Amino acid sequence: MTKNRKAPQIKDAINYNLTLPAYDRHVLSNGVEVYIINCGSVDAMRVNWIFNAGVRWQKKKGVAYAANSLLLSGTAGREAADISEFFEFYGAGIDLDLSDTVAFITLECLTRHSKDLLPGVAEIICNSTYPDAELQILKDDALQVLTERNNDKNAVADLLLQKVLYGQMHPFAMEPTPEDYLALNRQDLLSFHQDKYAYGECFITVSGKLPVDLVDQLEDIFGTLPLNKFSFDQEYLFPPLRPSEDRIHHKAIDRDKAQTSIRVGKSIALKRKEDYGKLKVLSFILGGYPGSRLYNNIREDKGYVYSIECNLVERGLYTQLTISADTDEENSLNAVNEIRKELGRLSKKVIKGTDLRTAKNLLIGSLLDGLQNAFNVASFWEYSLLKGYDDNYFYQLIDIIKNVTADELLKFAQEYLSAEDFYVVTVA
Amino acid sequence: MRSISFDRFLLSNGLKVIVHEDFSSPSVVLFVVYDVGSRDEDPDKTGLAHLCEHLMFSGTKDFPNFETLLHQAAGHTNGATTPDYTEYFIQLPADNAEVAFWLESEQMRKPLLNRRNVETQKKIILQEYKEMLADDPYSEAVAQLYSLSYKNHPYQWLPFGKMEHVKQFSLADVQDFISRFYCPNNAVLVVAGNIAVDQARHFAEKWFATIPMGSTYLRDLPAGPVQQKPGRIVIEADVPLNAIYKSFPMPGFTKPGYEEVSFISSILGDGASSRLYKALVREKKLFTYIDCGTNDLFDDGLCIIEGKLAKNNDLEAAEKALEEELQKMVSISLPERELLKVKNNIESDTLLGEMDLIERATKLALSELLGDVHLVNTSLNEYFSVTPERIIEASRKLFCHERSNTLCVLSKNIA
């Protein structure tokens, strides 16, 4: 850099005041709550219908998945091909998804098409018929996917980690088997659909640049359906955990391809509400961005991997921290050792002030980016509502991120993130 | 009517600068595209452009901790290499906009290149390649389709290049490549977001104007003779299902005739209501997956059809059925509703995509790179003026058997 140009001053993002756009809440005639985030400059919108129809509600394995996946497979008035044609004609995207607790129907479209499209969604909520032919296709596809996944080291590593963390027979570690899929029948799905969709508990979020008569549209189309108010305060009771006694697990599935998939993970029962914010900061420093400790050490310094990341996922009352990487088999032991070293470092040494400040700035910066997109804002509100947090949760989380000290993080790591407590799974 | 606003100016060293103001955003994006891609590599040094892209993140001579400084400013960065160009972006809070200009200009001016970084990034690229193969076992098949379809043109190899080339690269190779192509007169800088054009101009002049011009690169790529007979190869691979790939030459991205083929590919393969999906997946159950798309390359493009066969299905019968559907594009008239569906999809994809500031910056950069930044707005008009007659005429030219190439992939895993 030449002498004439001084480096510009860097302003810390942790000094910013972030504002989460608020929602407007409306209750339809049938008690279904609608959370509306009206912002943005593009004439597009997203509507999310969230049902109490997750995996926890099924009485037979695979039913929740099939009932959700086949929502577009036919109604009393339309076949699957007609449903695809209906949504795709408008350039709309309709997605289906499932978690442990809830199921999603998500529509993204141009705002001016909402009046045409919303009745189509009402139809699949009320009148899905699950034709046998479509169920058969799902079964065939599922069996094919299972076959492929058995040869996919990453998929095998993911599942094996769930089993060692929660127990072989725990719902979090159980995926439907081929026999489970073959045992599904149309009546299973129809019953589940009636109970959990057509007459189910639902709440709706709408985000984007919205039509002025949105509430009227929703009232006309969804307010008269036999849906019920979503119970946000239901407790999810699941079986106790039975984690493996061994911390290290190795499986060999394909020695021809000399790559090893690595998972290092722990399921954490956080004791205090503010603990999540601290965990978020620590997992970010560990492996949440290019420039994180795992990235700098194991990728940039040693070249063992292309991607390495640290993620947090909530499973019931637990928060699971997982570190994932792929490497050559000859480097896998070294890579695991370095991961453990980095975990150990969190509990042994106070994070340097500049490093902590950098991570906080970046974390706040990424949250700031997210806030400019109405759909992201809606996702945050959905998360907050489903967790039962109050409307100030976002600001409480920001406050923790901004103000947590290096000493507090060291204590937190010593309490929750001891390297010896982590499970290591390698699949070669 | 949707329109992306911009201002454009040129620095004295040849750097083209485009500014797009968006005061509703809290961020600023700096998007730089260099007019160099894998098509500009020597045939015995493939993958060099991609290696250089990796190395541009290794820091600069004065600031080896380049990314740490960016992170302190709450910014993030990434890049990508394509056959036609190499792109980089920085996104950060608007308050720190000048930091982006500073760091991006440092990167252009004096990237840090040393033997250690070169050797480390080579190792990382080898890992990246293995991860790509693990994620998509068909990716090597796609590479073979390209080498079949582009016999003399450098598009015959993909940006990853050949790993045996990558392993051999030296510091001198990288230094030579970067000094040839990474100069302001070979680049476009887009500034998008919460920054006024005057401020952007001031920062661009301050940080970029003193970077010396490089030599002018005159692209002179071999164009092969027009193919006279269909190409075909059959390979065996460690993939789950048998697959068929077909490629058909088409005009380059935004060149005359491009939009018509874009329509054709959407009608044939976009979504579960597309013609190929309805006929070949749903009705005849010959395929479990089928797609039709355009590769959007600048010189000469390809319309590519990819189909994964249902188990135990006869490859010959599946291919015949596929070809029958392609011929229907030529011989059966196009309903107005089908045309309108494609237009709705184009509009929806455009608007939803452009909610993202980086997407808008990318479109501006590529339009400028293609010779006219106004394309960012006029190209949508081109789509909406396409007629059924033009599509059918374009289908006749496109689905010419003699100019097609077919790759059949036989799975080693099916008994």
What would you report as the Rg of chain B, rounded to the nearest angstrom? 23 Å
**Order of SSEs of chain B:** EEEHHEEHHHHHEHEEHHEEHHHHHE
Largest pleated sheet of chain A: 7 strands, mixed
**So how many helices of chain A?**
15
Total count of strands of chain B: 11
Structural class of chain A: alpha+beta
What report would you give on this structure?
- The complex is a heterodimer of chains A (428) and B (415).
- Chain A starts with 23 loop residues before the first strand and ends with a strand.
- In chain A, helix 9 crosses helix 15 (406-416).
- Chain A has helices spanning 63-69, 80-89, 114-127, 132-150, 153-166, 178-183, 186-198, 214-222, 275-287, 293-301, 329-348, 353-371, 374-387, 393-403, 406-416, and strands at 24-27, 33-38, 44-51, 93-98, 103-110, 201-208, 228-229, 248-251, 259-268, 308-315, 318-328, 423-427.
- Chain A has 15 helices and 12 strands.
- With 428 residues, chain A is an alpha+beta fold.
- In chain A, the strands form 2 sheets. In chain A, strands 1, 2, 3, 4, 5, 6 and 7 form a 7-stranded mixed β-sheet that branches. In chain A, strands 8-12-9-11-10 form a 5-stranded mixed β-sheet.
- The longest helix of chain A has 20 residues, at 329-348.
- The model of chain A has no long low-confidence stretch (mean pLDDT 94).
- The radius of gyration of chain A is 24 Å and the shape is globular.
- By secondary structure, chain B is α+β, with helices and mostly antiparallel strands.
- Chain B is 43% helix and 19% strand.
- Chain B is built from 15 helices and 11 strands.
- In chain B, strands 1-2-6-3-5-4 form a 6-stranded mixed β-sheet, with helices on both faces.
- In chain B, a hairpin with a 5-residue loop joins strand 1 (7-10) and strand 2.
- In chain B, helix 1 packs across helix 7 and helix 3 runs parallel beside helix 8.
- Chain B is globular.
- The model of chain B has no long low-confidence stretch (mean pLDDT 94).
- Chains A and B meet through helix 2, strand 5, helix 4, helix 10 and strand 11 of A and helix 2, strand 5, helix 3, helix 4 and helix 12 of B.
